[in-house]
Amino acid sequence: MFRNLMPLLARDLPDLIGFGNSAAPSRESFEYTFENLTKNVAGFLAALKVDQYFLYVFDYGAPIGFRLAMRHPERVLGIVS
After folding, report:
1. What is the 3-state secondary structure (H, E, C) of the chain?
2. Cα separation values, 35 from 12, 38, 54, 77, Å
3. Are the C-beta atoms of residues 65 and 55 closer than 8 Å to each other?
4. Which residue has the higher pLDDT, 29 or 15?
5. Contacts with 14 (C-beta within 8 Å, 6 or more apart), sequence order
6. Is residue 48 classed as helix, strand or coil in its secondary structure?
7. Which of 12, 29, 53, 57 could cysteine-pair with 65, CB 3.0–4.6 Å?
8. What is the C-alpha to C-alpha distance for residues 47 and 45, in angstroms, rounded to an integer?
9. What is the pLDDT of residue 16?
10. pTM
11. pLDDT digit string (tens) for 56-68?
12. Which of 59, 52, 60 is nearest to 78 (CA)?
């Protein structure tokens, strides 16, 4: 159902640090944990002034999305899993 959605989003939105087309900092300069990736995504949302959103969670991004939801459940309009 969402097979065609993700490539459309990928044209205009960045992916997670070290994934897909993003630069991959060395492990000495960036600790690749779900916590740090969550902080990065939260910072991205804050920079864009996104204060409400739907989460589309699957695979490696699910723990990040659920961490965002636990921190600010009032921002989550819905979850697609």
Report:
1. CCCCHHHHHHHHCCCCCCCCCCCCCCCCCCCCCHHHHHHHHHHHHHHCCCCCEEEECCHHHHHHHHHHHHHCHHHEEEEEC
2. 24, 5, 20, 22
3. yes
4. 29
5. 21, 22, 44
6. coil
7. 57
8. 5
9. 87
10. 0.84
11. 898 889 999 999 9
12. 52
